[in-house]
Amino acid sequence: MSADLSPSDNAKLAAAKRAVEFIEAGMRVGLGTGSTAFWMVKCLGERVREEGLNIVGVPTSSRTAAQAREEGIEIVTLDEARWLDLTIDGADEFDPEMNLIKGGGGAHLQEKIVATASDRMIVIADPSKAVDHLGTFPLPVEVIPFGREATRALIERSLREQDVWARDVTLRMSGDAPFVTDEGNHIFDLSLRRIGDPRELSLMLNQVPGVVENGLFIDICDCVIIGHGDGRAETRERGPRVLHAEADNVFADLGD
Ligand SMILES: O=C(CO)[C@H](O)[C@H](O)COP(=O)(O)O
């Protein structure tokens, strides 16, 4: 715990420190994005420089790539790494089943690809991210810019048909212009009254033409490390992945 940091940053740092203890020499590690993941990249950089820890990182955004380079962490693309041992990332919300809402930082597309191509995903968070039911945090949905307003209307119609009434489907802005993701796309933030079945909602959103990916992470996270302002960290493990269990390491399945 550092006296110079706010309780919130101390909590993020505590979770980050505990998470990087799971990283072993030779691992290929997915590096998340956001203010909590920032501390993880910083702690990992310290291990690389001080212990000579030999790992490669796959960043989930241009921001994280820049930070990892500054920290002296070797980075490669996901296609170069092919499959990852571990991904460590933050989250906007996690529920008791360790399903998540992500994308508050606008990086959930790359984050979901990287986490799903990993043997294990660890989420690092402060206690404010724990919820009984997902949905208080606006759900980010990445869409391609072409036909964006038609995509918005189709999202709204699908939500109504599923009896999920969105209060607002808001285009994320960066100053006066739409926010642009690393993949050149835009984001709608969905303020939902409730998310009944997050699995169903995720599938339904991804069926709308123009939607690239939504911020629901279902059956992807294996472990949540919750940091506290006093420097403590608690680790909650989940059982084996349900939906992704058979799909783990698709390259191994291909005999590659
Ligand atoms: O999904 C994310 C970025 O796309 C972040 O992990 C999420 O927004 C949490 O960020 P923070 O740690 O800053 O609260």
UniProtKB/TrEMBL annotation:
<feature type="binding site">
    <location>
        <begin position="33"/>
        <end position="36"/>
    </location>
    <ligand>
        <name>substrate</name>
    </ligand>
</feature>
<dbReference type="InterPro" id="IPR004788">
    <property type="entry name" value="Ribose5P_isomerase_type_A"/>
</dbReference>
<protein>
    <recommendedName>
        <fullName>Ribose-5-phosphate isomerase A</fullName>
        <ecNumber>5.3.1.6</ecNumber>
    </recommendedName>
</protein>
<comment type="subunit">
    <text>Homodimer.</text>
</comment>
<feature type="binding site">
    <location>
        <begin position="89"/>
        <end position="92"/>
    </location>
    <ligand>
        <name>substrate</name>
    </ligand>
</feature>
<dbReference type="GO" id="GO:0009052">
    <property type="term" value="P:pentose-phosphate shunt, non-oxidative branch"/>
</dbReference>
<comment type="pathway">
    <text>Carbohydrate degradation; pentose phosphate pathway; D-ribose 5-phosphate from D-ribulose 5-phosphate (non-oxidative stage): step 1/1.</text>
</comment>
<comment type="similarity">
    <text>Belongs to the ribose 5-phosphate isomerase family.</text>
</comment>
<dbReference type="InterPro" id="IPR037171">
    <property type="entry name" value="NagB/RpiA_transferase-like"/>
</dbReference>
<dbReference type="GO" id="GO:0005829">
    <property type="term" value="C:cytosol"/>
</dbReference>
<feature type="active site" description="Proton acceptor">
    <location>
        <position position="111"/>
    </location>
</feature>
<dbReference type="GO" id="GO:0004751">
    <property type="term" value="F:ribose-5-phosphate isomerase activity"/>
</dbReference>
<feature type="binding site">
    <location>
        <position position="129"/>
    </location>
    <ligand>
        <name>substrate</name>
    </ligand>
</feature>
<comment type="function">
    <text>Catalyzes the reversible conversion of ribose-5-phosphate to ribulose 5-phosphate.</text>
</comment>
<dbReference type="Pfam" id="PF06026">
    <property type="entry name" value="Rib_5-P_isom_A"/>
</dbReference>
<keyword id="KW-0413">Isomerase</keyword>
<dbReference type="GO" id="GO:0006014">
    <property type="term" value="P:D-ribose metabolic process"/>
</dbReference>
<feature type="binding site">
    <location>
        <begin position="102"/>
        <end position="105"/>
    </location>
    <ligand>
        <name>substrate</name>
    </ligand>
</feature>
<dbReference type="InterPro" id="IPR020672">
    <property type="entry name" value="Ribose5P_isomerase_typA_subgr"/>
</dbReference>
